[in-house]
From TrEMBL:
Residues 10-305 form the Enoyl reductase (ER) domain. It comes from the Bacteria. This is NADP-dependent oxidoreductase. GO terms for molecular function: oxidoreductase activity. It holds the Pfam family ADH_zinc_N_2.
């Protein structure tokens, strides 16, 4: 099968087309013909070796965890899926090796859900990692009706889902983003503020009493503003900085594969409650360019690769 892989850590230049055998499937795994896969920031961080010691890599590495496709071969005990079923998955394994930037991928059933007919394969592939990260962080932070929520990097892949899920929960949402993305954020139901300049003053202008929840999807200096912006008894959740937990008593969220959560997200997207923003689509031969686009840090929504 055709795939994109790398034999050593490095820049996007290490990504090369290769020919590999079809993946082996275990008893609770299905072989999926890939229609589309998404690229996420974690993919280039792993590729550059930043997560060594946290997630082991087995070379050659085919990157990617997000996938949408068609079940070609069920495993011995996979009653959830039959050959021909259209599915989406956050197909993360314990090691990084046989990923989704390929013609075929082995998908554990615990990571997968049926793809609604209302979603294209590109839309479905864009949903799992970012959508699950948003859903799980919104829940763990206790967002509910009446909450005033600050979302950092609100126009990004995770942030754009979090804005919509928090709004669906009944919260008021203020989101940080560049001015070019403010109309987009308004369309999602957020009140936008520019992350440049005096972020604390801008946020306090809209929420003088502070925030019940702060959701950090960007890291860097954003977490430094928590003491000035979080209400007494409020919760901060971060996917980038453990200080949210260790210094501020909040949550550090590392997204988990969850078939039930994924099915819920897919249903919300099929109903139009959650809109999926795709900034660019690349074919498999240009997967390195997809990595470069995500690495630039300036994409709105998700970057997808079609197989």
């Amino acid at each position: 099968m055709r795939a994109i892989a790398y034999e050593k850590f490095g820049s996007a230049d290490v990504l090369q087309p290769v020919d590999l055998p079809k993946p082996h499937i275990g008893p609770d795994t299905v072989l999926v013909k890939v229609k589309a896969a998404a690229v996420n920031p974690v993919d280039y961080k792993i590729r550059e070796g930043y997560l060594q010691g946290l997630i082991d890599a087995q070379f050659p590495v085919v990157p990617g965890w997000d996938v949408a496709g068609v079940v070609e071969q069920p495993g011995l005990d996979t009653p959830e899926f039959q050959a021909g079923d259209e599915i989406l998955a956050y197909a993360r394994a314990d090691v990084v090796s046989g990923g989704t930037l390929a013609e075929y991928v082995a998908v554990p059933v615990r990571t997968a859900a049926h793809k609604p007919a209302e979603l294209s394969f590109e839309e479905a592939a864009a949903l799992p990692l970012a959508g699950l990260t948003a859903l799980q962080s919104v829940r763990r932070a206790g967002v509910d009706a009446g909450s005033t929520v600050l979302v950092h990097a609100a126009a990004g892949g995770v942030g754009s889902f979090a804005v919509q899920l928090a709004r669906h929960a009944g919260a008021r949402v203020i989101g940080t983003g560049s001015p070019d993305n403010h109309d987009f954020l308004r369309s999602l139901g957020a009140e936008p503020i520019d992350y440049h300049g005096d972020l604390v003053a801008s946020a306090r202008e809209l929420a003088p009493d502070g925030f019940d929840v702060i959701l950090d999807y960007v890291g860097g200096t954003a977490i430094d503003t928590v003491p000035q912006l979080l209400k007494q008894g409020g919760v901060v959740a971060s996917i980038t900085d453990a200080r949210a937990r260790d210094e501020f008593g909040g949550q550090y969220v590392w997204v988990r594969p969850d078939a039930v959560d994924l099915a819920e997200l897919a249903e919300l997207a099929a109903r139009g409650v959650v809109k999926i923003e795709i900034s660019e689509v690349f074919d498999l031969d240009h997967a390195a360019d997809a990595h470069r686009a995500v690495e630039s840090g300036h994409t709105r929504g998700k970057v997808v690769v079609t197989a």
